[in-house]
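Risk register update: the risk that structure generation would not scale has been downgraded. Supporting records follow, first protein first.
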Amino acid sequence: MRKYILLLLIVAGNFVNAQSVNNYKAVVVPVKFDFLKSENAYRLNTLSKFNLKKAGFEAFYSNEQMPKEFVKRCDLLYVNVEKEGGFLVTKLFITLKDCEGKLIFQSETARSKEKDYETAYVECLNQAFESIYALHYSYAGSAKPLTVGTVVAEEDIPETIIKEEPVKNNVTAVVQEVANATDILYAQPIENGYQLVDASPKVVMKVIKTSSPSTYIASKGEVQGVLVSKNGAWYFEYYKDQKLISEKIAVKF
């Protein structure tokens, strides 16, 4: 009897997740999956976008400019293809997560005994997408209701303030304080750290964990530095023209 109850709970849990995908407008596809070394390796990202659209979703690459109706990042799902370890067997599964990294749906784990990586990955991806097709996706409405609050006019938004402050060791740091609420970055988990995306969503920064939870190795485009927490705020610090730049960053982990 306990086995039947457990099975019922598992099926019910999958059903809830399957239904919830209908609350999201579109799916964001990364240009690179974590288990691969290069962008669109074996064309898996292209195939993922193709299969998502075939399954009824609107789909966009993470570096793609989206139409205005898709700019609210929490109306979107974020797809990932993940690899499981296996001896002489390739195993892949697909996840769909919300803007906060919460798992909304996970496919069945697909398996292939093909020795050629490209053949095995493509075969597994196609198998895994059978679970996505089975959802019979149809957009049903917003994932999260809008919060009723004060509407802020554009002219009321404070401009970016740039000022110089003295720093220890006789180094002058240029501190850039960003007060605009639209500049908030959202942390999405990646291997060994996070990628910080804006509301587009576009990847703005990537940060790698260190032994200290208040310090990350950070990169913003070609600029390398650190992301550090000070007095409850995050700062991206790097050197430019022999000056230490400390740029205040609004991050939601």
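Supporting record for the second protein:
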Amino acid sequence: MNQRKAILKVLESNSRISPAELAVRLGYSEEEVIKTIAELEADRIIVGYHTLINWDKTDDQSVSAIIELKVNPQRGQGFDRIAEKIYLFPEVDSLYLMSGGFDFLVELKKAPMKEIALFVSSRLSVIEEVQSTATHIILTKYKDHGTMFVKDDKHKRMVVTP
């Protein structure tokens, strides 16, 4: 595996790792790691660093929603123009073009249920190219970005000794 890919793999699972620790783990010099990370950021391969929060452990009453969209792209403009209309809304956390039964998957920022309903009815569904929406409220997150949100005692392996 090349140096860039090795660094990306580690950072994807732990963005808080120090360049010194990353260098030791991968067998590179700290200077090489710092330089490579700077290049990856400049090339927009690394585009951000995020904190994963288990909101169920807080008193926050907001909900997360995922919305499936079917759209009718305009001739010669495709999906990109519609995507731009959608991703510019501050309520939109993530937007994906999908294959299958719908065209876009929209993930909204956590908000009260009333705000999500208002966003879908007054901002999203009124876009001319949007044919239909299906809104799904996330009830419980068990795992996100490879991190389990539940205590995993029952799946631990037993220690076997001869």
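The beta strands are 64-71, 92-97, 104-108, 130-138, 143-144, 147-148. On this basis the risk owner (M.S.) recommends closing the item.
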